[in-house]
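Protocol step 6 of 9: fold each sequence in the batch and record its structure tokens directly after the sequence line. For illustration, a two-sequence batch is reproduced in full.

Sequence one:
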Amino acid sequence: MSSEPQLFFTDVNERQALFLRRTVIFGGATLAGVGLLVGRLAQLQLFQTQQYATLSTRNQFNFRMVPPPRGLIKDRHGVTIAGNRPSFRVLVVRDETKDLDQTLDLLGRLLPDTLERRRTIIREVNAAPRFSPVPIKSDLTWEEFSKVNLHAADLPGVMADMNEARYYPYGGAYAHVVGYVAKVSDNDVKAMRERGEEIPSILYNPGYRIGRQGVEKALDEPLRGEAGGNRVEVDVRGRVVAEDTAGSKPAVQGSEVVLTLDNDVQQRALEVFGEEAGSIVVMDVRNGDILAMVSSPSFDPNLFVSGVPTRIYRALADYERRPLTDKALAGTFAPGSTFKPVVGLAAMKRGLDPSRRIVCNGSFYLGRRFACLGRHGALDLRGAIKASCNVYFMTLATEMGPDAIAETSRDMGFGQTFDIGISGQKAGLVPDREWKRRTYSGEQKTWFPGETPSYGIGQGALTVNALQLAVYTSRIANGRKAVKPRLIKSIGGVEQTSSAFEDLPFEPQMLQVLRDGMEAVTAAGGTGFRNSQLGLGTVKMAGKTGTAQARNYGAGSRKGAGRPWAEKDHNLFVAYAPTDNPRYAVSVIVQHGGLGGGTAGAPRAREVMKVALLKDPEMRARIEQAGFEAPEDAGAREAEARGEPIDSPVIDAAAPPPLVEPGQ
């Protein structure tokens, strides 16, 4: 049986009612939606206009902190020794990049060397504050800078600009005393918090640098300046399209720092060392101004500004001559025979007649034999300083004892540090009986008589640094005042004055005796004669040679021939000039020089002293008035006449040994 279709009919009124109900429901819903939309628009337009206008402006404008240019550091004559130079760089702003990995991939195609630092870059970008540009690479070449700008449209959040980077035009000449700048580390921030200091927001800027050593570290705060900021307008992709100059704040450069150093003297002091290790300090004996303070070998501080590669840092740190160590302040050595005038001064303070003669037969006996490098016969104090006689000063030392020597040593500047505005000084050691009691236990607490002879000739536990030797020499040359060193001349145009010098606790005629002896050292027959002649006519230099043992040689030779560098003696020389009216003092330490102070130290002191004297207008006028022409002037004139290049004088590294035994 087949089924047939069936038809159903409904009432027309019923269908109309259903349509009307649906129309009302949908119409009401539509009206409700429109009402809500109108209400929300009214709320946004009438009641929250200011709030969203502010948010819109924040999306449109960014305020980017601008690090200030670091203050300049200059020498006493206005020569810039630490300045700033223009540097092209590329930066990334994390909040303006859609995909950091993709952005770095694109940058890697333009700057391949950034791929090697990818992990470090990602870490620095993620750690940076919001909207802070993070330097990806500095010192771009013009070609690299052009590439980045050419593809800027494809690199949202990436920008290339020109900033000022710290620059040290004289490289290693000031590496230790001026120091260098480097990135701010977590340890820097932690140390500031521990000291209760407020952390400046600029320190969180990834491109900012702070002082790490020397003047840069000690005067970091005045050198920093005040940070500024640029209010820039960005498009939807984060690219800068304009700058709101009215809303920007210019950065204020840091204060200018002027040092007492003389650039010519400082550079010459580093030059004369060549490949040797050691230090030189030059001081004005009248006011304590430091004209030069050099440690050798040095390093190029420019390497540290952008971050020194690990392999280079390790090479510097592992080199046995320690280029990273400031030997002028932190290197302490036995002073050797340069200390003998201190012993003579201590004896005169306790009644010694400087004309008293002591016979030297080549040896001094006190429980054992102490050798003298000669048989000098009968000598007074002046003659003993000239001949550097061990027997004479060992005799005085055993008569006085260690405490008298220690007292005079401290009066002359040893065993202490000086407030020169930078840290890193080591006080060295001036031993006495109290020091032994504090330092040792048991029988070793006692000062044994056999220790005193070595003390009397600047050996034993006694250690000093080059700055102390320069202070000591300045006090001898001054003759009346306890001269103290000064390094910082002015900060921000404000002169940095030091307190008045105290009087030395010695009669002036005692110090005159020492000067007489030191003048004899550099005169004919003296231990420093051969290499201490300035060649400046009537302007002469007085000094004292010294050699400090680096180890016990037993019966072996101390001359160092064939010995490893680290086993050779240290060589020292201290001097002042002119002898008739002292103006400058110099101290030289040649670490493991292997020669006597008269051969290794004296020629270096001579070259540096000549520059200091010839730079002094009064000294130069005196030389010229006497009708004398400085050797370098005459040589330059002859070379110029022959059409040859003019070079500065150099030390003859192959100079023959002195006529006297080295070591005194």
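Sequence two, same batch, same settings:
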Amino acid sequence: MPVFTRFSGSSQPGDGVPEAEDEPAGGEREDGEREATAAPGPGPAASRTPLGHHLTRLRTRRTRHPRTARALHLTTTALAAVLVLGALLLPNTLPALEAAGFARIPAEAVIGAVVVLALPRRPRLVAAVLYGLGLTVLTTVNLLDMGFNEYLGRGFNAALDWDLLPDAQAYVEDTLGGGVATAAAVGAVVLVLLVAAVMVAASIRLATVLARHRVRATKGALIAGTVWVTCSALGLTLFGGPIASERGAGALRAHAQRTVQSLRDEAAFVKQSKADTFGNTPPAQLLPDLRGKDVIFTFIESYGRSAVEDPIMAPGVGRTLDTSTKVLEKAGFAARSGWLTSATYGGSSWLGHSTTMSGLWIDNQRRYRTVSAGDHLTLTKAFQKTGAWDTVGVMPGVQKGWPEEKWYGLDKLYDSRDLGYRGPKFSWSTMPDQYALEAFQRQVHGKKRDKPLMSFVILTSSHQPWAPLPEMVGWDELGDGSVFAAIQKAGNKASDVLTDTTKSREEYGRSIQYSLTSLTQWLERYGTDDTVLVFLGDHQPIARVSGNGASRDVPVSIVAKDPKVLDKVAGWNWTEGLKPDRDAPVWKMSSFRDRFLKAFGSTPHPSKG
């Protein structure tokens, strides 16, 4: 009696297609399991069920079209093999996504085949499902790595980065609209589920085919394993990479090690954050050499070293810095500039802000939450602690409650709702920097007060996607910001800039020029003999703009009219003017707080936590 399960029922005796040569006669499969033998079709009882009816139709089609059925079987099997091998060899960066990278022998495929061939039917099915789910995890983390490397210049961290996904969705919503953000979130979930379904189905398919052709599959696995070991032992390469690959297992192992290390680092950081060089310094011994000065700390979004040195962005930004230096010198100001290595890259600006102000290396969200929930002394809080300054924050990017203002030591916070802006948003940025600075002058800096002012200002116009961009208008024309409506309407669309790397670089450079011009013109217009401005970038722009392998350095400048202020930092050996030289000193961003406090007369009194 013929067996109708060979090649998934694609061949029948007498149809001109050879039977499976490794399959014993009498319905006995190579794994020792008996297959039910039957006449060409289920019995009357089975055919009355929907499933039986469907199987009857399917077998009838296969019987009538054996060549088509065989071709479909081979195509499906080949596709399953391509999917599995592709998942095992998929790189985690876009530049590495080349055809040559898939010309490898993955050890995980050989091991998987050996395991499948050793198992009976039901355990084999379970193993295939688990293997497919493992491929889903591997594919997902590789795709996340691609995205994180493209935008943040680093791989995905499973222990720390899930908290960033809601922020990513909020960014897409602010940039491209709520509908796009929702569609992207739903699409991501559907994509993961689809990958899981496809990978599990492909794994089951291959496991079934291998089991049905056990003798040939065993020989093939032995040959592949021998070739893999030989290539590995001899270090043989092809297209610039090793032929013997274990990329899949290596990727999962790297993520596991990264997760474990991150958890260990977090435990150590909790202890570190409780110790502070200036934790017990009396108020009278904090910043005595700045008493009477209005001190302003300003962060310019995404103002990185690439803006000053990249051949596309640097010419325009360099001219702006040179022109601004001359304008400020004419107004009586002098400047010194250097470099800081940021704790973040491409995004998560608050990590750069908190690292600079706290003196701790805060390079992930968990560290940020840990330190901001404690009482570690920030540079801004040091001013508040003295009692000699009023302390305020001006943050047009904040659109809801921001409890960190207490940790930063701010007496008053002015966010996007407090600055009186009635003009249009410019993509993510709620208002142009020029308007934010004018509102700061009108509502805070320009008012008479009993104490000098320490201000913490975050400028946002240079935030990606750099479209549409604001333009400078007359300072007396700013009003409530409505003047920007026509400029916003005539600007580029965010979607057009996001998809064009060259355009993104050009528009990024323009945004930095705008922010620098806004700030330096504000200082020229409203600065006094007692004004001290410290401004810097929070991080480099995304890797697609700053370039692969770009540093994490950002420019930092200190500007003042009083020569005694700059005399205090003469030992820093910073470059004169607003543009730091290529070989100007480079410090870790976390070292800035202590250097600044010491330069202006603060006395260390450590606390151990």
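Proceed to step 7 once all outputs are recorded. Observation for sequence two: The chain is about 50% helix and 10% strand.
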